[in-house]
Design brief:
The protein is an alpha+beta fold and about 475 residues long. It is about 50% helix and about 10% strand. α7 runs antiparallel to α10. It is a multi-pass membrane protein.
């Protein structure tokens, strides 16, 4: 008894803590022994899991195994070819394009979605209607990928009257450049009238002396190309010693009549055209060398123009450059050439940016505010805080979003199929798998090989995600 009384460890433990320890030990004994980590589940738990494991194995494991086996046989499924289908995947130029596009998707799409979601999450904390903004940004997630593809197929239409993207580009272009000219317009044929030059320009048939005027009648002007400020065609204004004047008009009278090659009542001037005076040579030489553009002018609302600053007595060829008759600016070719893959990635960003924003906003709500305030007190700007404080603290959440997007883009199919419309330049591995198996290729062996390759590409990202989840589990 004395030895127990003299034990320093028993004297160091307070009475209350000894009582708490005894109660905790009693609870653990009543609850039974804890199962160590890594120990298999009891047979009772496995029996309860069997009803879920059976359909899971039938719907997941069996298709994966069957696809792997099918990839070793030819198109008919009767002849064993080993790795021949995989060699065909590598040899096919279309599959190489799909691999290149898939690599672009894996690098660009997850990065853009994560960065955009981060910016939205950070900026929405500073606006009053944050909930409404998040609702609007997240709303595309409620739309099926098929419907999203149809929407962006219309957005990227080439015709500016139908496609929103090109309509916006044309509006901005015409605001700064003054719009287009008169595509398809041509000079009226006739003796002494301007003719079409080999380069597409319209030029007077003979040089004119400075101080004279000219008439340039045009045909084939479409009504939609006539600007709203176009006025009735007027006669050429009087020309001074160093000037060339004239009128460019639509030489067509509604209902017939009129004199061809002369401005008549009811005929419209063509404003906005560029007119050049090209040096043809003076009678005695001197001045600018022949072929030099000595002056320019732009036609007025009634089609008249005046080119000033010319050398009196010199001769000039009146010329309308081919740019006046080129096709109007119609925007970009979104669904062709090199822009089709970035265009589809843009639609993917529209759909998934809200998902990334919501996840990152949840992580941002858990960031300690005192850390941010301390950074502001130390004089750090908002950009510096975002890069050096917010992003490191949100690293686990950003990793979740990034890995999830990588897995998602490896199997993207709906948007590519609907927006791309089967264009080989937009193909990715998932779309090539469908094309080879069901979309006209007729070779399910090669399609299965592509599916196995896709599965192998997804496995590292899935394993990384699983490892992270195990590491975060308490």
């Amino acid at each position: 008894m004395r030895a127990l009384h003299d034990d320093p460890s028993r004297e160091a433990a307070p009475r209350g803590r000894r009582g708490t320890a005894r109660r905790g030990t009693a609870r653990r004994k009543a609850a039974g022994p804890r199962r160590p980590r890594g120990r298999p589940l009891p047979w009772t738990a496995l029996l309860f899991l069997v009803p879920a494991l059976l359909p899971l194995g039938f719907l997941v494991v069996y298709p994966i195994a069957h696809t792997a086996v099918r990839s070793l046989f030819d198109a008919s499924g009767d002849t064993f070819v080993g790795l021949g289908n995989y060699a065909e995947v590598v040899r096919d130029p279309g599959n190489r394009v799909a691999v290149r596009n898939t690599a672009i998707w894996v690098v660009a799409a997850p990065t853009l979605v994560t960065v955009t979601g981060l910016l939205f999450a950070v900026l929405t904390e500073r606006i009053r209607w944050a909930a409404a903004f998040k609702l609007v940004v997240f709303m595309p997630m409620a739309i099926s990928f098929l419907a999203s593809g149809v929407i962006f197929r219309l957005v990227y239409e080439q015709d500016p009257d139908k496609g929103v993207a090109n309509a916006a580009m044309v509006a901005v272009h015409d605001t700064f450049t003054g719009g287009g000219g008169y595509p398809g317009a041509a000079p009226r044929p006739g003796p002494g009238l301007p003719v079409r030059a080999p380069d597409g320009a319209v030029a007077a048939p003979a040089p004119l002396a400075a101080g004279s005027g000219a008439l340039v009648p045009l045909l084939r002007v479409r009504p939609e190309h006539l600007p709203g400020d176009a006025a009735p065609a007027g006669p050429p204004p009087g020309a001074g010693p160093g000037e060339l004047t004239g009128t460019v008009w639509f030489d067509f009278t509604r209902g017939g009549g009129g004199t061809p090659g002369r401005p008549d009542a009811g005929e419209t001037g063509l404003p906005g055209l560029t007119v050049e005076a090209v040096r043809a040579g003076p009678p005695g030489g001197g001045g600018d060398p022949p072929g030099t553009v000595a002056g320019k002018a732009t036609t007025r609302a009634d089609g008249t123009f005046t080119v000033r600053g010319l050398q009196p007595g010199a001769f000039y060829t009146l010329r309308l450059p081919p740019e006046n008759f080129a096709a109007a600016y119609g925007g970009a070719e979104w669904l062709g050439g090199t822009l089709i893959t970035p265009a589809i990635i843009g639609s993917y960003l529209w759909v998934w940016a809200g998902f990334a924003m919501v996840l990152i906003s949840a992580g941002l709500a858990a960031v300690p505010r005192d850390v941010l305030e301390a950074a502001r007190v130390d004089g750090a700007g908002e950009g510096r805080i975002l890069v050096s404080v917010t992003v490191p603290l949100l690293a686990p959440v950003l990793a979740v979003v990034l890995v999830t997007m990588v897995i998602n883009v490896l199997k993207v199919f709906d948007l590519v199929f609907v927006i791309g419309g089967g264009d080989p330049g937009a193909a990715v591995l998932a779309s090539r798998m469908w094309t080879e198996s069901f979309g006209g290729g007729g070779d399910q062996g090669v399609g299965s090989a592509i599916a196995v390759l896709l599965f192998a590409l997804v496995l590292p990202a899935a394993a990384l995600n699983l490892r992270r989840l195990r590491r975060e589990r308490p």
